[in-house]
Amino acid sequence: MLRRVVLAAVLGVLAWMGPGQAQSSDPSFRIVNNTPNVVNEVYASPSNERSWGQDRLGNEVIAPGASWIVRLPSDGNCNFDVRIVYQGGTAEERRNLNTCNMTDLVLGQPSGPAPRTAPRNQPGSTQQGNPSFNLVNQSGRVIEELYASPSSQQNWGPDRLGEDVVQPGATYPVRLPQGECTYDLRIVFSGGQAQERRNVNACAVTNYTVR
After folding, report:
1. Rounded mean pLDDT of 147-171?
2. Which pLDDT score is estimated for 124?
3. 128-210 domain in CATH 1.10.287?
């Protein structure tokens, strides 16, 4: 679908990075819905592309007051356009965002400059770091689904394995955006049996072993 010009004014988001701070190569970011409206669709595509691509929410929505992490590939591209579609069809767009420098995209931000967000890997930030880890399957069963979402969120988000599975004895790298460290994990095995672990400090974990 070709992009259409949005007639409504779009509120800007200021992504800040301190002097001398190296830019992250991870363009993933979190949408925070501070509006009274439900967000039905989110599109994020490189600024040099002509189509919006897929709805990043899939079958999910972002309720007022909730947040959602948009996972984007770390392929060297940082400049993205973002389109938000609310319940009822109202939409807004943010153009030419450097999402590698951005932690949160806040919807419903008051007029004027947005509060500065903590840069990724900023020294001294509370519970900030690299939450990525390796999933090690020593359970003897095939893992078909893996969910990892910040403990502050109300939904599990997308299946981190996508079309992949983790065979017994195999290891799978789980890539998460720099920032929040405390995650909830849900493992779903072949046959539907699941196990969950809450409030995992993923920044302190290199290998998460499933038994």
Report:
1. 87
2. 38
3. no
CATH 2.20.130 given to domain 1-118? no
Considering the chain, tell me which residue range(s) the CATH 2.60.40 domain(s) occupy: 1-118, 128-210
Q: Which long-range contacts (CB under 8 A, 24 or more apart) does 102-105 make?
A: 102/13, 102/15, 102/29, 103/15, 103/29, 103/30, 103/179, 104/13, 104/29, 104/30, 104/31, 104/32, 104/67, 105/13, 105/29, 105/30, 105/31, 105/32
Q: pLDDT by residue (tens digit) across 85-133?
A: 999 888 888 888 999 988 889 898 643 333 333 333 333 334 678 889 9
CA angle 49, 76, 26 (to 5 degrees): 105
